[in-house]
Design brief:
Distance between the termini: 37 Å
Radius of gyration: 16 Å
Number of helices: 6
Number of domains: 1
Structural class: alpha/beta
Helix content: 40-55%
Largest sheet: 3 strands, parallel
Strand content: 15-25%
Number of strands: 5
Shape: globular
Length: about 120
C-alpha cells in the first residue's frame, strides 16, 4: 500500500527520524512503500525563532512550568543535530529515488517575516 507523508514545521523531525529508523529496523516496508513526501514551511536548516522560544521557556521554568528545550536545540538555526538528521535521511536509497522522480516537494514562504526583531 502506497504511503504519503505531509509535514509541517516541527513534525518534520519526527517524520525524518521515523523513516530513518524504519530503514534500519524490520519496518523497512514503510520506507519502501513511501511514494511521496510534502514539506510545508519546514526549516530544513533550522530557525532563528528558537532564540525567542528559548527565552520564553526559560522564563516559564522560573515560574515553575516544565520546559523542554531539547527539541528547540535541535531546531536551532544551523543545528548539527538537524544537519545530521537531514544527511541520514537524504542518504537513504529510497529517498534518493523519490527525489529523482520529483516526489518530494517543499512549499515555503517567499516573503520574510520578522517577529520581535528575529527573522522567522
Amino acid at each position: 500500500m502506497p504511503l504519503q507523508f505531509l509535514n509541517h514545521w516541527i513534525c518534520n523531525n519526527y517524520m525524518l527520524q521515523a523513516l530513518i529508523c524504519a530503514n534500519e529496523e524490520d519496518s523497512h516496508q514503510i520506507i519502501c512503500n513511501t511514494n511521496g513526501i510534502i514539506f510545508l514551511g519546514t526549516p530544513h536548516r533550522g530557525s532563528q525563532i528558537t532564540v525567542v522560544a528559548n527565552i520564553w521557556y526559560r522564563l516559564s521554568s522560573l515560574l515553575g512550568y516544565p520546559s523542554a528545550t531539547a527539541l528547540l536545540k535541535t531546531l536551532a538555526y544551523s543545528s548539527e543535530e538537524l544537519e545530521e538528521l537531514d544527511h541520514r535521511f537524504l542518504s537513504l536509497t529510497e529517498i534518493k529515488k523519490l527525489l529523482f522522480e520529483g516526489k518530494i516537494v517543499c512549499f515555503f514562504e517567499t516573503k520574510g517575516l520578522s517577529l520581535f526583531g528575529v527573522s522567522v
